[in-house]
Design a protein that fits this description.
Length: about 400
């Protein structure tokens, strides 16, 4: 089936607007992706005609909202290749997911001197929750660097394992460099040693097919706003054995079975980890976004973005004054760069915005990686399923203007 980029772009209303008198070229997808009309319509429909609180309600609207909300669990499981949808826990995004693991699993299963291995490429969401355990329990964080191409050698992670290693927290795809990490090899080695693996799928799940059962990890987190869904939506896969070792992170409605003055009993997973009124409409929107992506086909999306990556790499490599960070042969269509000279990433981003090109500037919530690369900040152009080669050309034209201004 042919990848119909024009039809896909037509599904995203915001792509038809102008910014600063120029057609919008949206290349900030690594931060948040835009939303197709089916997601926007589903959110409007839910609030306008179908809204009620979920679970326990016996009236029509509550049952309808509950059915639509709970159906998303199965969609997430299908999207991630998880056989049992009850191993899917809803969260507000990856940040909450990792804090859930830190408090729910780490705080009750780790002790002083235990080690958690991290790569230098991790997003702060996959760093700070483990720092909590370092500060409060005396857990040791062990760091593994990527090489000059931005690749992370899985053997380097395996070599960092010791008898004290209890967890590996690793990204599947770097949000700064676009590097795809061989997490399957890392998970296999960890599993053989009884080490728990926690994988950040925030970027990977957007750009390529993911099969969690094949990867063999214990935890795999995704966030809805990068998956063309609403902000405040997301989920984490938790292996059943890990669920059994966990305590609830938050207390409230839904996560309990019985509450009395002197006793309390928890609900069964996944409800045990979902306290309070959830993001009902956000999760329904996420389900529609996943349906949309699966309808297009993750293989087809990956092939389109690979073509974009190759074209963008060729065009950007032709700018000998542009410093592109990370040269991995196996990367997504994500490019972080600086210009030779004194131009700050924020200045570059501002000039690009005047040409209608939206990119991200800063440390991208990855300060250890910035320190490793020896730069305070970069600009990042991150592509999505709806971007085109014409938009790559628009980026290059805007960068040439930057060079003329700052050279």
């Amino acid at each position: 089936m042919t990848y119909n980029i024009d039809a896909i772009r037509a599904d995203f209303p915001i792509l038809s607007r102008e910014v600063n008198g120029k057609p919008l070229v949206y290349l900030d997808n690594g931060a948040s992706a835009q939303k197709p009309k089916v997601v926007i319509d589903a959110i409007t429909q839910a609030y306008s005609h179908e809204y009620a609180n979920v679970h326990r309600g016996l009236h029509y609207l509550s049952n309808l909202a509950t059915d639509k909300y709970e159906a998303v669990r199965g969609k997430v499981a299908q999207f991630l290749g998880v056989p049992d949808e009850n191993e899917i826990v809803f969260t507000s995004g990856t940040t909450e997911a990792f804090n859930l693991v830190s408090y729910g699993w780490g705080a009750h299963n780790l002790k002083a001197g235990d080690e958690i291995i991290l790569s230098v490429m991790e997003h702060h969401a996959n760093i700070v929750p483990w720092h909590f355990l370092r500060e409060r329990l005396g857990v040791k964080l062990v760091w593994v660097d990527c090489d000059t191409n931005g690749d992370l050698d899985p053997q380097a992670v395996i070599d960092a394992m010791t008898p004290r290693t209890r967890m590996i927290a690793i990204t599947h795809l770097s949000n700064v460099l676009g590097t795809v990490v061989d997490v399957k090899s890392i998970c296999e080695a960890a599993r053989a040693r009884g080490i728990v693996t926690c994988v950040d799928g925030s970027q990977a799940a957007v750009h390529m097919p993911v099969n969690v059962a094949d990867l063999g990890c214990d935890f795999y987190a995704i966030t809805g706003h990068k998956l063309y869904g609403p902000s405040g939506s997301g989920a984490i896969y938790m292996k059943r054995a890990r669920m059994d070792e966990m305590q609830p992170f938050m207390g409230g409605g839904d996560m309990i079975r019985d509450v009395h003055r002197d006793t309390i009993t928890w609900n069964d997973p996944p409800m045990k980890f979902e306290a309070g009124t959830p993001g009902i409409v956000q999760q329904i929107g996420l389900g529609v976004a996943l349906d949309y992506m699966m309808g297009v086909g993750m293989e087809a999306i990956a092939a389109h973005e690979t073509s974009l990556r190759d074209y963008a790499r060729t065009r950007l490599d032709g700018l000998n004054w542009l410093n592109v960070q990370g040269k991995s042969a196996t990367k997504a269509a994500i490019f972080s760069f600086t210009l030779e000279g004194a131009a700050h990433a924020h200045d570059i981003s501002t000039v690009l915005d005047k040409k209608g090109v939206a990119v991200r500037a800063g440390h991208h919530c990855a300060q250890p990686l910035m320190d490793h690369m020896g730069v305070p900040a970069t600009c990042r152009a991150s592509f999505a399923m709806y971007n085109t080669t014409d938009e790559v050309d628009a980026l290059v034209d805007a960068l040439e203007l930057c060079h003329d201004l700052f050279a």
